[in-house]
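STRUCTURE REQUEST FORM
Protein name: Nucleoside diphosphate kinase
Source organism: Mesorhizobium australicum
Requested output: structure tokens
Priority: standard
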Amino acid sequence: ALERTFSMIKPDATRRNLTGAITRMLEEAGLRVIASRRVWMSRREAEGFYAVHKERPFFGELVDSMSSGPTIVQVLEGENAIARNREVMGATNPANAAEDTIRKVHALSIGENSVHGSDAPETAAQEIKYWFSDTEIVG
Ligand code: CMP
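Status: completed
Returned output:
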């Protein structure tokens, strides 16, 4: 089915000028960018976005890194967009990511893994809503 998912290009990647290269990989995977904005998130915004991880040992490091520079927040649309996006991103830890995936090609480490993508329909809806109003999404 035609789905929407939320995607974020993280500060480690914008810092290395990879916004275009990563967006191209998403597009080549059959995903269409139907909303996009560059945002330097505050610590509060990062804490809110990643609230599900707040008890994890890496939470502080995650919030530091996500608020360390600009990110690109995007809504992607396509057939099975959630699964397709996860496939083209590759495993969370780049050491385990398959060949030709974004994280295999571009990520530096598990913390600096260049992209985030929603893992399920419920989180996709929540994450899209966290960053975008309906009028900003032009499908
Ligand atoms: P992401 O898909 O954005 O969701 C949570 C992030 O936490 C994850 O990608 C990683 O970048 C980051 N992270 C940092 N350390 C770890 C870890 N040990 N295990 C899982 N995720 C981690």
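Reviewer notes: Helices lie at 11-15, 19-28, 43-49, 59-66, 81-89, 102-106, 121-131. The pocket of adenosine-3',5'-cyclic-monophosphate is lined by residues 53, 58, 62, 92, 110-111, 113, 116 (CB under 6 Å).
Form closed.
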